[in-house]
């Protein structure tokens, strides 16, 4: 339910509507607008409650109208927040311009991350990625450097003036990861790990939420709702591909149509991950450019100084030359399309 106040509604009238709900154990959300205030009710109401509340509130002074929300997600919806959100991390504004997040899949050593950060910085990208904990299908595969990797990521990020992002895998790890990283990534496998979403939201850090490989748009945005419900508005959505019908050629099917859909129905920034979306390095560049054209707010790309020696996901990582080419072509798109 959304209560829309009149243009000239006073603060006292707004407070009266807010108090109506708080007196009934419901926490409303005040949504200031350019010319009027709206009050959203994120709680699930029964049919009787909706009918009763609408009749009472509709007659209160300063109320213009009472409407019902159209979507199961509330806080992520443009019905609640019409202007597109911008998530600021240091000097980086995700949702304003085109943000490039780049770096290796795994943090392997200080030398590897310093070399990666140098390439990322010189290319014009602004956020450094790197996994300290790697959820792998096989328990015998490289699992990451854990806290030592986090320390490397933090130190290198500060050295090169780059914001940092890394994945957090469980609720008990949130505090430690938040200590070292600027942005907390929730991986595709964890999109519906609701205790993790809640704990990550409580950290107050920006949350980078990846779409699950079989998740619908509604399920994706409802996952974001868990974070937003912790009074954490710093949520970034990431489209990283869905389960393919044919795995012969690509790891996933990169659903670029999700970008305009998400931008229409949600105010949250949308990033595209063409590396996981295709799983093949040679397809990353064309899909990255396509992400720009369809209106994404940025891309996340895996780049490794020497992909043939990468301890994880080397097949989808760009080498420095290819990454430089990608950045050059993105800059040309920016110049051509504005």
Detailed description of the structure:
With 338 residues, the chain is an alpha/beta fold. The chain has two domains: 2-67, Alpha-Beta Plaits; 87-337, TIM Barrel (Alpha-Beta Barrel), CATH 3.20.20.70. It contains eleven helices and 14 strands. It has helices at 11-22, 47-58, 110-123, 147-160, 174-180, 194-202, 217-228, 258-265, 274-278, 281-293, 320-337; strands at 2-5, 29-32, 37-40, 63-67, 87-89, 92-94, 99-103, 127-129, 163-167, 183-186, 207-210, 235-239, 270-272, 298-302. An eight-stranded parallel β-barrel has the order 7-8-9-10-11-12-13-14, surrounded by seven helices. A four-stranded antiparallel sheet has the order 2-3-1-4. Helix 3 runs parallel beside helix 4. The model has no long low-confidence stretch (mean pLDDT 94).
From the structure above, extract its key features.
338 residues, alpha/beta, Alpha-Beta Plaits, TIM Barrel, 8-stranded parallel β-barrel
Question: What's the SSE blueprint?
Answer:
Layout: E1 2-5, H1 11-22, E2 29-32, E3 37-40, H2 47-58, E4 63-67, E5 87-89, E6 92-94, E7 99-103, H3 110-123, E8 127-129, H4 147-160, E9 163-167, H5 174-180, E10 183-186, H6 194-202, E11 207-210, H7 217-228, E12 235-239, H8 258-265, E13 270-272, H9 274-278, H10 281-293, E14 298-302, H11 320-337
Parallel strand pairs: 7-8, 7-14, 8-9, 9-10, 10-11, 11-12, 12-13, 13-14
Antiparallel strand pairs: 1-3, 1-4, 2-3, 5-6
